Amino acid sequence: MSDEYFYGVTLSSSHKSETWDPEAKAEYPRSNKLLIRQALLGPDAQPDELNVVQVETMCLQESIKIPVAILKVGETRQARLDIEFPDAPVTFTLIQGSGPVHLIGQHLLGALVEEFEDMEEMEEEMLDEEEGEDSQFKEDENKRKGPSGKRKTNEDEDDEEGEGPKGKKAKMSNNAKGKATSPKKNAKK
């Protein structure tokens, strides 16, 4: 069974830090993933005050602390984040300002995590296919270009068809009836 839950937390001067750690609770025995979609500055935020949200999580073998949102009334009231945290624990801290800052996202459980990853893989495959089509288009375009790199025009292509064996153009002459002779016949003369 797979589940998806809304996740939200409010950071403020009275609640500066929040830790997401569902693995520490027995109620979530399956795999977990946290997706933080957006950080919003609440309507009660103080003007001219920077509100900085920092995240602390594991990165390979060590812990990392990094700001993920800087919000200010009158400038930036919201930030689209789209950050994934596949491993718990994750700690969000309001390191500057008094907030309130609302973090919203999704908590994915169990098989849904795998389905989400499958969707990401499908998107990557579609992008790869589109890039493959783009490269095929470029190859076709390069075939239409001459050695100078400029695109051939119909005149250029006609001129190439009329070239003789050494790259020289065959002379066109009119016969007695006013018709042009074949360039191949002129090249043999």
Automatic annotation (TrEMBL):
Where does the protein principally reside? nucleus
Q: Which organism is it from?
A: Euphydryas editha (Edith's checkerspot)
Q: Could you tell me where this protein is found in the cell? A: Nucleus
* SUPFAM superfamilies named among the record's database cross-references: Nucleoplasmin-like core domain
Q: State the GO CC annotations.
A: cytoplasm; nucleolus; nucleoplasm
Pfam families tied to this protein: Nucleoplasmin
Could you tell me the Gene Ontology terms of the biological process aspect for this record? chromatin remodeling
**Which segments show compositional bias classed as Acidic residues?**
120-134
Q: Which InterPro entries match?
A: Nucleoplasmin, Nucleoplasmin_core_dom, Nucleoplasmin_core_dom_sf
Q: Which Gene3D superfamilies match?
A: Nucleoplasmin core domain
The alphabetized UniProt keywords are: Nucleus
Of which family is this protein a member? Belongs to the nucleoplasmin family.
What's the protein called, per UniProt? Answer: Nucleoplasmin core domain-containing protein
Single GO molecular function? histone binding
Residue spans of biased composition, Basic and acidic residues class = 135-144
Which residue ranges does the record assign to the Nucleoplasmin core domain? Answer: 6-108
